């Protein structure tokens, strides 16, 4: 009889326990943590752990092949900052590249977004056309533009010759004075469509109620743009500038595919010089040290900008 009562008690308690579990699973905090867990795990395995490993390697001497890693302390950083002349050239080129990247691709993308947000014929095909360079493999973009910049058979020199301007013909990728800017033109063509898509999404999120109210109050096109569109686009502008900044600081593939850092290191970048030190010269310690310096530069630029933009957004709200 006791056994039967105990079994009955267990059967009576099962619905209560399942109800408690169901209520716990319906908790928004728990649901959010469950949805975030796979992404956090993937980030920890494929991003956070390699970053910690690179920081650790920056204090060691290792050629990438032997099992032995020798602790050298700050020697790698001392060499990079004091004895490596290419590092400072790469740093200067990276800063120039970053400065140009937060101006021209976002401006061009913003202009394209404003135009393609209007009700014009062929709007959808044009959006796809301008976005297409973003999805092309960067090494393919580099190969195409390297051919167009060819000093003998390239498109640009052929057009200049046909137009009767032979004095403007250049060795676009062989002249150290213009090589960096020639590669940057190809980079702008590749990434401007990405800014365009983000700005298009922001423009389509502008409240039409505010637009109509401003029109009723007599606002013109410039006033609408200044007092309605731009304030609504502040979050989008922040995202575009931060992504442009981060992508420019880690510029590698298109430069590697077009010039390989030449001529005479005139297009060398920090990310590519870190790769060269580690994978080509076999010094993973120095390559990791350059990567850590690049990480610190990125953090030193991005975090203050984020804090400044957040304060501005709070002030406007």
TrEMBL record:
InterPro entries in the cross-refs: ABC_transporter_permease, MetI-like, MetI-like_sf
Location, primary (coarse class): membrane
Keywords: Cell membrane, Membrane, Transmembrane, Transmembrane helix, Transport
Compartmental location: Cell membrane
Domain ABC transmembrane type-1: 91-305
GO biological process terms on file: transmembrane transport
Residues that span the membrane, as ranges: 32-52, 95-116, 128-148, 178-203, 224-246, 289-308
Membrane topology: Multi-pass membrane protein
Pfam families on file: BPD_transp_1
Annotated Gene Ontology cellular component terms: plasma membrane
Family of this protein: Belongs to the binding-protein-dependent transport system permease family.
Name under which the protein is recorded: Sugar ABC transporter permease
